[in-house]
């Protein structure tokens, strides 16, 4: 079997890997092992999901796998890329005079959230999806958009730069919770629809011997359950980091006065 | 909040002393309010218990005639309502919550003491409303979840369901108020150093509980308002004939109802997590995990309401979703049970009565939780729902769960509340009788359920396999009643002859045990600084993990503060009067005597305004409030935002009903009638009013009270114009087009949604005018600009709701719904 | 990955500082102008027949913008402690989820009417 | 302050726990060979067999979990209650391994339950039925059941006949409030909602008589709303259908004939249909106010299957319906003595 890939995907991959390597070479610094692992994880995830057999099945109208690709692009690859980016690599870009104002605006949590929500909902809005995603032969552009909004989405949680502070832990939890709106708003109608929503998927047999309807329900469930479980894990991870951190931190901002309970005597005529 | 200087008499050491009856009626001390809640709840527990005994007696034999069908239906309904709303909730959040929150977080009182008293009085009058049927017309008889359309006037012509409807509405108001209060207290009034992960687990559980109350009750309120309208104004919210569906009630009810289940069980978890570590002599095992589990349970509880409705035919996708989310709850619940077990493991156990109740809770709750796993799976649920196995399940989690936790907490905290010890011997009698009788009564209900006995049947045929167990259960139910006799004896003995309790009789771990017993009215002479979880234990023994055998430091040092300098808020009669006003309104509605309604409303408004002006320096009651608060935020602002959050859910329920019913509506009227040009004009008016509001705030912040007042009046004026537009619009529809309120689904949903928004605008205008008067009389300045800001938040919220309504209702009027 | 990025935001001490800052009257006027423009757009979109097919997303985006502006500037969430944003957006999320699920659940039933 | 703990207390706890477990074993299993009328543990259709299998799986899981919890609990109490006064050796605040274990184990159990659940949900809630499927329309009333067979036109009440080994589609709708159609042996339960059509699709595999009951609280006489399902062989079913379709015999003389006149003159005919004598069916889109009495005499029970169909019971019921079934919609007609006997005789003659 020939491992095929879409040109657009290859371009994105090349840009990512090339950029990473170029920065490392130019700045003559070496990312840590963990960063390298995270970054290669991201690349592997993209390669696995967007090229080869998976992509082949998507082109044969497997809606479920198409949803899986999207989840990888917005939920798996961006956090790994951010985790794999050292601060010295991000700094020259994000503190650049021309880029900084835009970057500051885009990485404001609410802006990032709305941008992601809007993009994600729009990509799945049937008229848009049918016109852009499928009639148009290039998939790569939609994928790139998803990867980009994914990166922006995760930035407030995983910012590699102290200059771009991360959200506080409680706010991170809130942010994750907020994410359920676009995800549910997109996934629930697809799953519960009474007919096939996207014209592109009405036709023909789908891979794995699924009927178009069954494929759609499966895809909807993958998105719904998949994001639910995934976000639950992210929420748990954030929560326990928060717990551990508060557990270890001494009281801030106050004199460490030892607890002094009241006297045993009943008299208060002091 | 309020802190008017009031001298504290040096001899007044206990919150229980002084004041007489009037003192109790006007009290705003959280500990006294707790006691009031406790006493009320115990009274209703006796009443609910009596109903349960009557119900059990009727079921003793097949074809029994002890109760008539009608009485039986009233008794089982009221038993459920009483135990849920008038016993477990007030005991857990009302009694333990009120008493313990300030003491455990190191505060002198709750954030809004008068609101606290108001919550109690409204609760009391709501409870009376719910039980008015004893005097007239019969108790509620539709089951505690009162499924529509059985509750419609046509099928339930008597006042029974009216008591249910109005009683729950009033109780809902009380619950939301106290939840708001506790939320702000816990968020903002913690002692210095008490970070989230140093809070006792009971505080965590109450925090999550009150969030659930704030965000779940609005849904019930909306459902009850619809029911009220159906019964009084002949609308069709649950009437099939108009295209509506009675299933809407089930959704609205269970969106509230499932979180409600956790509202009842989470504080129980909290109490157990306080009792078990103390008597195991160990810190709570896996504290972060326990907190996580509470949050996860609460979070999941919003996504599982459908598991009460598997039999209603929601379709396979909804069934699957709700089934899987419900099953997931098993994971955090398992975490909790094992963490309790491992807190016991390796401890130095002291088997006091409180500990025994807590241990029994763990096992019994496990049984209840495990049968819950069955009902989460629709294939099993379709055999078991509405059968006695469900009765067994919720009595295991609430009766043998929450009630046992309450009893554990009762034995644990009685010395702190009253200053006297209970008899351990009588306590053990109580425990063993209770464990035997509760289990023997409720465990066989599993078998009855398996043998197909439906719940809520007043009679049954012989030879169904049910005869023996029903007789067995009834006899054991009598033992349950008997088991409370040692408790009553114990209370009597303790209050008359009981040994005086010391500050720390159990060698406990948290801050409430560091204050004198019973606590003084001001709680803490000196507000403690917290450096670790289990703060009091650390103060006594040096570290959380210390074995507790040798004190590392002298735990008790003399207080260095002059307690007469402590400011505590003065008592107030207005909460009671406001409660009476609300009661009068409900009563007037019931007897249909509008003069009573208006008199009561006048009393309500009068007391509200009088209460607002009770403190002469309103607006800056406590200049140090912000500096002393935990987050550096003003409690009133936190409270306003929390209230707005709660309102959001209220409007979401109204809007979704509109969206759903718009497309199901029959008859001539539809959204085509809406007047876009007029509403566009109103939209601009409301947006402009918001601009004036922020300008007013900016002016007051500059200390420019002249322009501030002008802008405030302008805002109110624009609000009035908006209201005028709405009145014109409604009048036009009503008089010109003949679209009366209950013409069809569209008309009633439209009038209700837009009308409720208009009502909010009206409240806002009144508030603005009050602020404007304060401005005219020079009461507002830069320091007090927060009062304007809070009023503004409300006003902008009303604006934001209109932004949504304008688009969803007006501009999308031609779009097909759902 | 630097832990310091997190540390300097999580210390609750910064909340107190966030309290006082409020926008000026000019900023308020600018916001009011944008709000007016957005509302005009909404009404315009409603009346333009060519846009009827994308009416729903367009209106939703426009109203979301208005919603954000009022919440962020008039209710000064943009300037206040983030805690207030949490207190507002958490229930808002829940409300949105309830809205979505209720319309779906009851809308679904509409396809299976009784006789 | 410390209460020394005596071990015998611990034994009491253990023994009461074990007693309860024993009771559960005794109580759960009906004596061999017995099949109680509403027993949910005797599946007699492929549908309830699936329900039962999942039930058994979950019960086994539940019991194992309970045993583990109780074991740890009892062990902890027994071992550590003797340690009073000694310093603690374990003072864990947390343990990552243990915590992970009790996240992962419940998760596995949840998945083990979720998979058959989801599978069953998908496979037992069809949207479409084959032409061979027999449709039975169930119409719930306060407080009785009406059954209609659209394919043959048979109308009956409180007793429904279905052929064995043939797929049956119970299409259910309520005439007034929400009820629930519960046949434990054959189809579990499903709410019967006004304005919404719900379905139970099942294939019964054993001929016999089965009981059912309304299980959603529906007003005063919720307890008095039972029904019976007869699973017939195909021949019996055809014979029954044929009999139901036959015209009722009109008595021409004797008490029964007098009764027929009373029936037609008294308000009975306003609500009840006897084909050929009375009936207002076209006015009602679904369901009458009262049961169809065309073949009343052939039914075994009356008044929502709460009484056997004997002349004495029938007389009792007609004489004072409210005493038999509180809140019943059937009015008290004030009939007594001879008239009542005549009416009863007539109704019983409608075989």
Set out the fold topology.
The complex is a heterotetramer of chains A (270), B (818), C (115) and D (351).
Chain B: H1 20-25, H2 30-58, H3 69-105, H4 113-130, H5 160-188, H6 201-233, H7 247-280, H8 287-301, H9 316-328, H10 330-344, H11 353-375, H12 378-384, H13 388-418, H14 424-442, H15 444-450, H16 467-497, H17 535-541, H18 574-591, H19 594-612, H20 625-628, H21 635-662, H22 676-701, H23 705-736, H24 745-776, H25 785-811
Helix pairs in contact in B: 2-3, 2-4, 2-16, 3-4, 3-5, 3-6, 3-7, 3-13, 4-5, 4-18, 5-6, 5-18, 5-21, 6-7, 6-8, 6-21, 7-8, 7-10, 7-11, 7-13, 8-10, 10-11, 11-13, 11-14, 13-14, 13-15, 14-16, 18-19, 21-24, 21-25, 22-23, 22-25, 23-24, 24-25
Chain C: H1 4-10, H2 14-18, H3 25-47, H4 55-74, H5 82-109
Chain D: H1 7-28, H2 46-80, H3 96-124, E1 134-141, E2 144-149, E3 154-157, E4 159-163, E5 167-174, E6 179-183, E7 188-192, E8 198-203, E9 208-214, E10 226-232, H4 234-245, H5 254-265, H6 268-271, E11 301-302, E12 307-308, H7 311-319, H8 321-324, H9 337-349
Parallel strand pairs in D: 1-5, 4-10
Antiparallel strand pairs in D: 1-2, 2-3, 5-8, 6-7, 6-9, 9-10, 11-12
Helix pairs in contact in D: 2-3, 5-9, 7-9
How far apart are the first and last residues' alpha carbons of chain C, in Å?
64 Å
Could you list the spans of chain B in which at least 5 consecutive residues all have pLDDT below 50? 1-11
CATH topology of the largest domain in chain B: Cytochrome C Oxidase, Chain A
Number of strands of chain C: 0
The protein's oligomeric status is heterotetramer
Please tally the helical runs of chain B, counting DSSP H or I stretches of 4 or more residues: 25
What structural category arises from helix and sheet content of chain C?
mainly alpha
> How many helical elements of chain C?
5
Characterization of the model:
The complex is a heterotetramer of chains A (270), B (818), C (115) and D (351). Chain A has 270 residues and is mainly α. Chain A is built from 13 helices and no strands. Chain A is 72% helix and 0% strand. In chain A, helix 3 (52-59) runs antiparallel to helix 4 (63-84), helix 7 packs parallel to helix 11 and helix 10 (169-178) packs antiparallel against helix 13. The longest helix of chain A is centred in the C-terminal third of the chain and has 37 residues, at 212-248. The model of chain A is unreliable at 251-270 (pLDDT under 50). Chain B is 66% helix and 0% strand. Chain B has helices at residues 20-25, 30-58, 69-105, 113-130, 160-188, 201-233, 247-280, 287-301, 316-328, 330-344, 353-375, 378-384, 388-418, 424-442, 444-450, 467-497, 535-541, 574-591, 594-612, 625-628, 635-662, 676-701, 705-736, 745-776, 785-811. Chain B folds into two domains: 26-555, Cytochrome c oxidase-like, subunit I domain (Cytochrome C Oxidase, Chain A, Up-down Bundle), CATH 1.20.210; 638-811, Cytochrome c oxidase, subunit III, four-helix bundle (Four Helix Bundle (Hemerythrin (Met), subunit A)), CATH 1.20.120. The two termini of chain B are 45 Å apart. Chain C folds into two domains: 21-80; 81-115. Helices cover 72% and strands 0% of the residues of chain C. The longest helix of chain C is centred in the last third of the chain and has 28 residues, at 82-109. Chain C starts with a helix and ends in a 6-residue tail after the last helix. The interface between A and C is medium-sized, with 38 and 32 residues.
